[in-house]
Automatic annotation (TrEMBL):
The keyword Transmembrane helix is annotated on this UniProt entry: yes
Membrane spanning residue stretches: 12-35
Highest taxon listed in the record's lineage: Bacteria
Protein name per the record: Uncharacterized protein
Keywords carried by this UniProt record: Membrane, Transmembrane, Transmembrane helix
Length: 375
């Protein structure tokens, strides 16, 4: 026996309405979520670009400010050591004005904006629609804010760099002017020693001078040394006219090799009371110049004993090996310095004990012939 069939269930109109409302709400919620997500996705790249530009502008300003601060500090140190004998008033004033301008820009504090970090929903993470809508509102304000801040930082960096460039240009002009004055000192002080002159020449012609305080101090020191050396050499020539005559003679036969001189009672361990003696240093720093030291006894006997003159010629002969025209001849003669200097003196007509024969023996005829070609 079976149960009779049940009649179909019927929902009340009220229940149906509730279901419809729930479904509608769900559809609306899903729709809002989709719309919010899509809008957030589309707007996110503009935020990323604006934020990146802002960070890059801040970093660029930091670099510009660091360079400018370095230039300002370097220039302040330079100003402290400038000397009126090397720097014209116009150049000094131009540098001071440029430095004031740079400090003004740096002190204006118109640099990087330093906007803070913001907390936004990651587009790859889920967030409810109301959070996304809140982000959208915030991003719409943040993007122009970041753009304005970036533009401000960029403008500030340009202003700082422009001011730093003006300081650099003024510094370069000042140093160039100082080098020109220093170069003129070489001509104004012809009696300065080759050693002091070479230091200054390297600074003004060899690219050895910079634009900072240390470089200017080195230039000023080199100029002072040249001036002092010239004054000392002039005074020495007046006080010791025979020495000046001997030095002039040595230079006249040196074939362009620049020579400095020193005098002493004892040279190479030999005292002036019993010996004529001398030494020669040459090619000390790769240059074609030499330092000859002579005993006072040569001064005493000058003009009376040709052996004293022969010693001087021997020492000049030593310096000739640094001349390009004589290097191969030096090797041809055996590359022995004392034999070479003796042979050179003999070839110059000083076939005397003082030419080096007494101290080192007579060189061969072949060595004399080779050295005689070095003229």
């Amino acid at each position: 026996m079976t149960d009779p069939p049940r009649p179909p269930e019927r929902r009340s109109p009220a229940a149906t309405a509730v279901v419809a409302v729930v479904v509608g709400v769900l559809i609306a919620a899903v729709g809002h979520q989709l719309v919010a997500t899509e809008l957030h996705r589309q707007l996110w790249p503009s935020w990323v670009a604006a934020d990146a530009r802002h960070d890059e502008a801040d970093a660029a300003y930091d670099q510009a400010a660091a360079r400018a601060e370095s230039a300002a500090s370097r220039t302040e140190s330079l100003e402290a050591v400038l000397t009126p004998d090397l720097v014209g008033e116009d150049d000094r004033t131009a540098l001071a004005d440029a430095l004031v301008g740079l400090r003004s820009v740096l002190d204006a504090d118109a640099g990087a904006s330093r906007l803070g970090i913001v907390d936004l929903v990651d587009p790859d993470a889920f967030a409810p629609a109301w959070e996304l809508y809140a982000d959208l509102w915030e991003i719409s304000e943040l993007v122009p804010e970041r753009a304005a801040a970036a533009a401000s930082s960029e403008a500030a960096a340009e202003a700082v760099l422009a001011a730093a460039d003006e300081v650099d240009a003024a510094t370069e002009t000042l140093i160039t002017g100082a080098q020109e004055v220093a170069r003129a000192e070489l001509a104004a002080n012809p009696s300065a020693t080759t050693e002091t002159r070479r230091v200054l020449e390297q600074l003004v012609d060899g690219g050895g001078s910079g634009t900072d305080a240390a470089a200017f101090t080195a230039l000023a020191t080199a100029v002072a040394d040249v001036r002092a050396s010239h004054a000392a050499e002039v005074a020495r020539a007046e006080a010791y006219p025979v020495r000046a005559e001997i030095e002039a003679f040595a230079r006249s036969i040196a074939n362009g090799v620049a020579l400095d001189f020193a005098w002493a009672y004892e040279v190479a361990g030999l005292e002036s009371d019993t010996w004529y003696s001398g030494t020669a240093e040459f090619g000390v720093d790769g240059g074609e110049w030499g330092l000859i030291t002579l005993s006072e006894s040569i001064e005493w006997a000058w003009g009376d004993d040709p052996n004293a003159e022969a010693v001087v010629v021997h020492e000049v002969g030593h310096t000739q090996v640094i001349r390009e025209a004589c290097r191969a001849l030096f090797e041809q003669a055996g590359s022995d310095h004392e034999s070479w200097a003796t042979a050179w003196a003999i070839g110059m007509g000083y076939d005397l004990p003082g030419s080096g024969i007494e101290a080192y023996g007579r060189p061969t005829d072949a060595q004399v012939a080779a050295a005689a070609q070095c003229r």
